[in-house]
Amino acid sequence: MTLVATAHERGITTLTMDAPAKRNALSARLVDELADGLSGCAGDPSVRAVVLSHTGTTFCAGADLKEPPNPYTFVALMRQIVAHPKPVVARVTGHVRAGGLGLLGACDIVIASSDSDFAFTEVRIGVAPAVISMPLLPRMAPRAAARHYLTGETFGAAEALTDGLITEVADDVDTALAPLLDALRRGSPQGLAESKKLLNARVLETFEQYAEDLVQRSASLFATAEAREGMAAFVERRDAAWVR
Question: Which stretch is the leader sequence (predicted)?
């Protein structure tokens, strides 16, 4: 059974994360399957754009704490989306947490339903949104990023739009996607690829400069006693020891 379903229609390939029982958490296997799907799209001349979608009520809950991907592999996936020659559009109709926000930051366009919500939950388990900062901080409003990184609060789609995290809010995401995908079908492969290079040059520079440091920083944080307590509290559905 695959964790990523693939469908193709009129130049658009949809990669659907299909692990709803685990809230599409980023396991090693899910990350590998997403990378494989994206690789196939990159070399397929029939693909004009890629839609990243999901089943269930959660787009992505962040890292799978029981079967996490190698951090270098997850960084490579985000970079692959940013550097992909085809536009990658995220279709969000639900909750997005932690590492799932890194996927949104890597995508070129994000359409989210009006009832979607978002949270940078890392600070509440004793770590930080380190590696996902690479695609996110170049795109988000600095003051908004500061609030969300430091508080871990849940916020809605309207605020995510204002903050630069998403592109559009819609009551019906598929209705909103239809004209956008038609517009992408009209783009030439070369025109789309070269336009992406212009748009994402600064984001790719961030990966080149900071990936190694941020992977190491993330690994060191997860190895601390404070993070172990935070993750245990999360699994046990209780407050961490530091909560006052």
Answer: none
